[in-house]
Specification:
- It is a single chain.
- It is built from 19 helices and 15 strands.
- By secondary structure, the chain is of the alpha/beta class.
- The chain folds into 2 domains: 176 residues, Glycogen Phosphorylase B (Rossmann fold, 3-Layer(aba) Sandwich), CATH 3.40.50; 217 residues, 3-Layer(aba) Sandwich (Rossmann fold).
- α1 crosses α19 and α10 runs parallel beside α11.
């Protein structure tokens, strides 16, 4: 009989965050539970024994991926051995489908129950994977409501369990208290610069954001800027980029959502931070730039063959599009208010503006910051939409939590 143990793989920062909350709840309900696997600082702090750090296997873009191939293979082999060891009753894959779906097959062959947390985004690309998921996964725990029906229609035992950030980010944080904590004038015009959590992202995004901030200062010289630091290992890089520009930027080592809740508007790199910005009710534009080779492959090969034609980088837009199909929601409200935020790729109306690749210029970013400043009706409409996003991500009162469902499988195995 295997010991009371689960194996978990979170291959990136967002998975580390979500899974840490899950592990804390698991261990609060079942203190004797042993959790091991791949993750980061948050999972380690929650009580998980790290076999590898996700930083060793996490990549962005083709060139970076080749450089970490040896680490990825070593981590994969470690997880295979663990699944076949007989020590674990349940495997919890967290997103990261290219590796995790392979391990799901090994888990099933080894008699280990698979409770997948943070669903692969089959609604965005490679929908054919859902058949593979149905064969390899015992329970799919989704954090977006529309995913539950999508999976159930394909024969997957799925349940929407609510989004971690809805629990972690309080409604309507007190802006005055946050500004006082950060040592900022309560009446100051504050802009958030959120350049991402990976060094490659920061290297590409922060210089453009900083140049946009300088343009904005030409019109609003009293403006101040806050930058949430994603980790201490990024401090030197951020300082070097900002040192070359004379900007009133305060770098803060605190949760990004607290910084964004203190700000009037902001520039946010695509990723987890876009949803944090929505739940913090900060009007923002989502921006993203890939290395040229990866962008070419995505646009010329991956998107035409594998991606949904209506996929978008801001999760607030994905949720709003799903709601739009019901005849209402944030996009409908924006249009009714006289605002049409068009997608630069397909032209369809969005809720949150997205600027990608060649459109990510200081002029374009500064343009949106000015719009947020001069048009209070625009920002009020966006804030109303953000509150709808929160409601969409809140679980049903009668639903079991992800931790409770996993413990049921643990006791059943």
């Amino acid at each position: 009989m295997p010991e009371r143990s689960v194996l978990l793989l979170a291959g990136e920062a967002s998975g580390d965050y979500h899974a840490a909350s899950l592990v804390r709840e698991l261990r609060s309900i079942s203190p004797d539970l042993r959790v091991t696997g791949i993750g980061g600082e948050k999972l380690s702090a929650a009580g998980m024994e790290l076999l590898h750090h996700y930083r060793d296997i996490n990549t962005i873009g083709l060139s970076e991926g080749f450089g970490k191939l040896r680490n990825i293979v070593a981590a994969y082999n470690t997880m295979k051995r663990e699944l076949r060891s007989g020590k674990h009753r349940v495997f919890i894959p967290v997103d990261y489908p290219d590796v995790n779906l392979r391990l799901c097959r090994i888990a099933r062959d080894a008699g280990v129950a698979v409770c997948y947390y943070i669903s692969p985004q089959v609604w965005a690309w490679r929908k054919g994977r859902i058949k593979k998921i149905a064969r390899r996964v015992d329970r799919m725990l989704t954090i977006f409501p529309f995913e539950e029906r999508l999976y159930r229609d394909a024969g997957v035992n799925a349940q929407f369990v609510g989004h971690t950030m809805v629990r972690d980010i309080p409604e309507r944080l007190d802006r005055g208290l946050l500004r006082a904590e950060f040592g900022v004038d309560p009446a100051a015009r504050l802009i958030a610069l959120v350049p991402g959590s990976r060094p490659a992202e920061i290297h590409r995004m922060l210089p453009i954001m900083a140049d946009a901030a300088r343009l904005y200062l030409q019109t609003y010289p009293d403006a101040r800027f806050l930058l949430p630091l994603a980790g201490p290992h990024l401090a030197e890089m951020v300082s070097e980029i900002l040192a070359s520009r004379s900007l009133p930027v305060t770098v803060l080592s605190t949760d990004a959502f607290r910084v964004m809740a203190a700000c009037d508007s902001g520039l946010v790199t695509s990723g987890t931070a876009t949803l944090q910005a929505a739940l913090a009710e900060m009007p923002h534009v989502v921006v993203y730039v890939l290395d040229p080779l990866t962008w070419w492959v995505v646009m010329k090969v991956v998107k035409p063959l594998l991606m949904d034609k209506d996929v978008h980088v801001a999760i607030a837009n994905v949720l709003s599009i799903k709601k739009e199909a019901e005849g209402h929601g944030p996009i409908t409200d924006m249009l009714d208010a006289g605002y049409r935020v068009a997608c630069q790729e397909c032209g369809r109306p969005l809720f949150v503006p997205e600027l990608l690749q060649s459109s990510v210029t200081p002029d374009n970013l500064a343009h949106w910051l000015v719009r947020f400043t001069v048009d209070p009706r625009l920002t009020e409409t966006m804030i109303d939409g953000f509150r709808q996003i929160r409601a969409m991500l809140t679980p049903r009162e009668e639903s079991l939590s992800a931790a409770r469902i996993i413990l049921e499988y643990l006791d059943r195995s």
